[in-house]
Amino acid sequence: MRMIDINCDMGESYGAWKMGADAEVMPFISSANIACGFHAGDPATIRKTVRLAVDAGVAIGAHPSLPDLQGFGRRNMQISPQDMYDLVLYQAGALEAFARAAGARLHHVKCHGQLYNMAANDEPLSEACAHAVKDLGGDVILYALSGSRMMECAAKIGVRAVAECFADRGYNDDGTLAPRNKPGGLIEDENKSVAQALSMVEEGIVTSLSGKRVPVAPGTLCLHGDQPGAVAFARAMRAAFKDHRIAVAAP
């Protein structure tokens, strides 16, 4: 039986502003990437989301971002490798404290938005991120884009990394994610999302927006909790995986 992790970006509400359906999605996933306050989230939201994950038996991950609340962490910023290290260590450390207070542990780190994209193929930024994860201790895992420079840097530094693929995003020919504002960049049809997930898990292939078959090696699949269809997507994916004898568990 094949096995895959399903992760979801969560805890992205902030103050009176609510985003996502975390409680409804949580039963269908195996790891949660919880916003740390820089692109979304606040202390109370972190605490509540960690509790949801603990109660559901879901692995707890930190979702550090660029300091960009207004832009939801999706705008480019010029940062140094030292900035990358500091951003990841600071935010993941805060999340780790909430996990420990709930009787759990920090399982993984997955960068958010533009911080993730910037580091994917920038070696100095990738190395800084991997060093921060290593310095967190406790065998914390790094989730990184399949085939990216970050996967290579993590291996070089001695950090366990899990290759991530996206069930609800379109791909470029080089295996990077297509921009969200590009037609097809965000998959909004749950049947298409499920078909892409099955192709990646069973065949190791994702079809790019131009029709090219791009090899991938997914250890974890991401669903975005901020899209309106997140609950339906998660439910449909779990049902399809059950039919195809694909088990779901955190790495």
What can you see in these coordinates?
This protein has a single domain (2-169, 218-248), classed as TIM Barrel, CATH 3.20.20. The mean pLDDT is 94. Strand 1 (2-10), helix 1 (22-25) and strand 2 (31-35) form a beta-alpha-beta unit. The protein has helices at residues 22-25, 43-56, 81-101, 113-120, 123-136, 149-157, 190-203, 230-243; strands at 2-10, 31-35, 59-63, 106-109, 141-145, 161-166, 205-207, 213-215, 220-224, 246-248. The protein is built from 8 helices and 10 strands. With 251 residues, it is α/β, with parallel strands linked by helices. The protein starts with a strand and ends with a strand. The longest helix has 21 residues, at 81-101.
Give structural attributes.
alpha/beta, 19% strand, 251 residues, TIM Barrel, two-stranded antiparallel ribbon
What is the structural class? alpha/beta
CATH homologous superfamily placement:
Glycoside hydrolase/deacetylase
**Strands ordered across the widest β-sheet:** 1-2-3-4-5-6-9
Unreliable spans are none
- Count of alpha/pi helices: 8
Question: What's the structural domain tally?
Answer: 1
State the total count of DSSP E strands.
10
Task: Report the C-alpha radius of gyration, rounded.
Answer: 17 Å
Shape: globular
Q: Do you know the CATH architecture?
A: Alpha-Beta Barrel
Q: Provide the residue-averaged pLDDT.
A: 94
| Proportion in β-strands | 15-25%
Pattern of helices and strands: EHEHEHEHHEHEHEEEHE
Q: What kind of assembly state do the chains in view correspond to?
A: single chain
- The termini sit apart by 15 Å
Largest sheet: 7 strands, parallel, barrel
Q: Tell me the name of the CATH class.
A: Alpha Beta
Name the helicity range.
Answer: 25-40%
**CATH fold-level label:** TIM Barrel
